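Lecture notes, part 5. Sequence design as translation. It can be helpful to think of inverse folding as translation between two languages: the language of shapes and the language of residues. The source text, in structure tokens, appears below.
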């Protein structure tokens, strides 16, 4: 089937670099002389027919912007057959032949279901700060989030060292510790608590004792939000103050600020490359694939694998972190 019109939308949690990817998809369509239409609010907008034709100029001045100009939404209707039927009817009415979805594994699962039911060509671009998608070394937004987190922890370090305090800093990562581990090494954290490896409360106390004994006056412990130690950061503060009264403990939960802000150069470049690859792949007749990057080369992974697979934590980086905290 000849593809004459491609739709692009963002879905699930926003991430820096999504706008750069939208821009790339729209401009690649213009370059290839294929019509392009944007869908607002993800699958919700698809069901409601919230479409807008896009040309090369529609995406001026967005490469540097965080968030997503197309908005994002969580849409329960799309989880139902009836909802997906409505979405299909809207796409057909608009004359859309294929779509590029920028989002996480939930959004990809929806795209795959839609393809199974309607044989509709779909390509995914991974956009999430968590970097938890199989089939790519980097998701859009991860690098930016790391830079944001490191910048903030640098500031926390100033006050931690001025008061000889211990800080528990909670970072995002619903199920994975990639942000915690990378930002932890980059910011020189004393300990890094991630879901992939449960340090245990005893070892945490031992580590903090050792740190004090080695002459350190302040410490930063990074905790991924999905960590499995069994206590949240506030409970950890109480626990450590009770068992190690030498420590004056404070807590900082970084929250959604990690998801915002201008994308880093790396994320802008990656988004631009992925957008081109996504449109080219559709025009070559490909479907059900996610664009990823590995060894700085773009690769395509079946969406079915991207959804099922799990990312692995970087063991070498964990070792580096251990050595740095000697
Ligand atoms: P992310 O894409 O960041 O993982 P979500 O998990 O919230 O975000 O998924 C985004 C949207 O994708 C959901 O609101 C829903 O519309 C759609 N979606 C997710 N899972 C499914 C599913 N199993 N079937 C159909 N649609 C789904
Ligand atoms: O998936 C990205 C992420 O930022 C997670 O780290 C976090 O748990 C989640 O989104 C929060 O999502 P929301 O507040 O949008 O529900």
């Amino acid at each position: 089937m000849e593809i004459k019109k491609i739709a692009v939308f963002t879905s699930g949690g926003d991430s820096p670099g999504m706008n750069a990817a939208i821009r790339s998809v729209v401009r690649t369509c213009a370059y290839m002389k294929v019509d392009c239409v944007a869908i607002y609010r993800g699958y919700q907008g698809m069901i409601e027919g919230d479409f807008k034709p896009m040309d090369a100029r529609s995406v001026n001045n967005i490469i540097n912007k965080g968030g997503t100009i197309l908005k994002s939404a969580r849409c329960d209707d799309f989880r139902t057959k009836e909802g997906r039927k409505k979405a299909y009817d809207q796409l057909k009415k608009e004359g859309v032949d294929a779509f590029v979805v920028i989002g996480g594994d939930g959004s990809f699962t929806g795209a795959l279901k839609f393809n199974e039911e309607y044989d509709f060509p779909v390509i995914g671009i991974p956009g999430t700060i968590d970097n938890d998608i199989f089939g790519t070394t980097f998701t859009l937004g991860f690098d930016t989030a790391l830079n944001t987190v490191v910048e903030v922890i640098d500031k926390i370090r100033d006050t931690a060292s001025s008061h000889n305090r211990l800080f528990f800093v909670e970072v995002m990562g619903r199920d994975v510790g990639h942000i915690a581990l990378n930002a932890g090494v980059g910011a020189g954290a004393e300990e890094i608590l991630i879901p992939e490896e449960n340090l245990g409360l005893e070892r945490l106390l031992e580590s903090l004792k050792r740190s004090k004994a080695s002459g350190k006056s302040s410490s930063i412990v990074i905790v991924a939000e999905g960590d499995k130690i069994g206590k949240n950061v506030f409970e950890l503060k109480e626990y450590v103050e009770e068992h190690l009264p030498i420590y004056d403990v404070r807590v900082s939960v970084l929250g959604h600020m990690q998801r915002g802000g201008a994308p880093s150069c790396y994320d802008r470049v990656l988004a631009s490359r992925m957008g081109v690859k996504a449109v080219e792949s559709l025009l070559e007749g490909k479907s059900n694939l996610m664009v990823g990057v590995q060894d700085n080369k773009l690769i395509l992974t079946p969406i079915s694998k991207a959804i099922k697979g799990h990312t692995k934590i970087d063991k070498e980086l964990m070792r580096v972190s251990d050595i740095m905290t000697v």
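The translated text above is only one of many valid answers, since several sequences can fold into similar shapes. The radius of gyration is 22 Å.
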